[in-house]
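Example record for the data management plan.
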Amino acid sequence: MSSYERTDVLDHNYIPKMTVFLIAVNVIVWIVLEWMGNTESAEFMMTHGALTVDQVRGGNWYVLFTSMFLHFGYIHLFQNMFVLFFASRYLEQEIGSLYYLLLYLLSGIVGNVCSYYVSLAGNDVLSVSAGASGAVFGVLGALVVLTLLKQGRLAWLGSRGMVIMAVLCVIQGFSTAGVNNVAHMSGMACGAVMGLVYRFLNVFDSQNLRNRS
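Corresponding structural encoding:
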C-alpha cells in the first residue's frame, strides 16, 4: 500500500533557485553588455544578439534564444526581473525547477518566433527586439491557469488577484510605446498551455498513485 502525502501548502520562505539563477544570468549579461557599450542603443544590441528580421533571415536563428537575455537599459531589466521573481516564487514551488525552466525557455522562444513572423509579414525589418518579457508572460500565463484550476499549492493563492495582475501587465504593454506585445501575448499563451499540460499530467499521476494504494 502506497501513501499519498498532501503538498498543497505554500511555503512562503521557499527560495526559487532556478528563478534566482535566471535573474542572475539576465543581470550579469546586462552588466557585461553595459560595460562593453550602451544597452539602450538598438544598433549595439542588434550586434550582440538582439532579435531582428534580417538576423533570422540571414540564418542567425540563435537570436531567437539570445535575445531573451538582453535588455534595453536598467529600467527594462528591473521591470522584467521584478515581475519574474514575485510570480515565479510560487510557480516554481508548484511545478518544480526543471519543468519551470522548460516553461520559461519555451515561452520566451515561442514569443520571439511569433514576433519574428509577425514582423516579417508586416515587412517590419527595422525593429530590434530584446527582453525576457515573452518568458515572463509565459510564467504569468501558467500561474493564472493553475491558480484558477486550484492546482496544488497554488490553490491557496487568490485567483482574482492573479487574474488582475495578468490583466494589468497586458494593459501596461498595450499602453506603452515600443513594447513587443506579440511576444507578450504568444508567450503568455504558451505558458498557459504548459500550465494545462502540467495540470493534466499531475492529475493523471495522482489518480494512478491513489489507484495503487
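Summary line stored alongside the record: The first helix runs from residue 17 to 36.
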